[in-house]
Amino acid sequence: MKVLRYIPLLIFAACGPQLPEVAPEVITEKTLHDTDDPAIWVNPKDAAQSIVFGTDKDTNGAIYAFDLDGKIIEDKTIRNVKRPNNVDLEYGFALNDSTQTDIIVFTEREEKRIRMFSVPDMQPLDNGGFPVFTDATGEEQLPMGVALYKKPQTGDIYAIVGRKTGPTEGYLYQYQLQSDATGISAKLVRKFGGFSGKKEIEAIAVDNEKGFVYYSDEGHGIRKYHADPAQGDAEISLFGSEYFKKDIEGIAIARYDDGSGYLYVSNQQRHSFVIFDRNTNAFLDELDLTTVETDGCDVVTVPMGPKFPNGLFVSMSDSQQFYFHDLAKIKPGLYPKPE
Known about the structure:
Elements: H1 2-11, E1 26-27, E2 35-41, E3 51-56, E4 61-66, E5 78-81, E6 84-94, E7 100-108, E8 113-119, E9 130-131, E10 143-150, E11 157-163, E12 169-180, E13 183-194, E14 201-207, E15 212-217, E16 221-226, E17 237-239, E18 248-255, E19 261-267, E20 272-277, E21 283-287, E22 297-300, E23 312-317, E24 321-326
Antiparallel strand pairs: 1-24, 2-3, 3-4, 4-5, 6-7, 7-8, 8-9, 10-11, 11-12, 12-13, 14-15, 15-16, 16-17, 18-19, 19-20, 20-21, 22-23, 23-24
Domain BPP: 12-334
GO molecular function: inositol hexakisphosphate 3-phosphatase activity
Pfam families: Phytase (PF02333)
């Protein structure tokens, strides 16, 4: 893997000091085409038996399932998906008054819809998919990013969806996922979010406990809004652009029980991750996790078995693989500052 890194680091040396490399504990088996975005499901009975889902972005794409050794779990993998872009996961979706299931939701760009499957039995719950951006045309109708928000007060679950391009306001659409006697549906509840027009919006992440949604306006900054539609559509902040070489990409939020935590954001063309404080959004550190051109990432802070006793950070690399890091090894402030 080192061969992949020398040329990019030489090219971008002028963009800042070379960062210390933090090697992963696990590199997954390869997908067929183009890895993009992961989501981590924590097995409530045995965290060491958890699953990492990851998109393989192609017309003949898939949602791959990996065990914590990085091996493909074929009977949990969803194939024949037309360009799955991003994926997210949520716990405890109410199918009816007495039954709940964990779910993944992913965008299927070429079909202009989002898909929803139960976890871990991997059954479709969407009757073929929920169309999105139905009032748009062309590239404005092509979904890319998706993040799930579970409202703590009610347990309602929403899908916040981004797209290939769109207007300068109302770029994101938020859908409430609902189940009743007629089946499961996705109800559009709001359009919100600014867009610079510079490139696109793909990476979206939600902090359920704090009630915020973050997304990367590539080449412009990280935007922050309220995740609950009842809190309004005004932008809370736009930050971080000065720490990135070019594209601002994947966002993962590390949450701790005491309310602390971090935002890990991919600095794609510098092949690194910029870390911000969860509460203040202040810059904390930048780390090189040896991935190349990272799009998506995800993180959990609970123990995940002997390989990942402190939590798990997953990020994609353009080698058609995902990299797994023990979370304790990538916290800010662990390594000397480069000079």
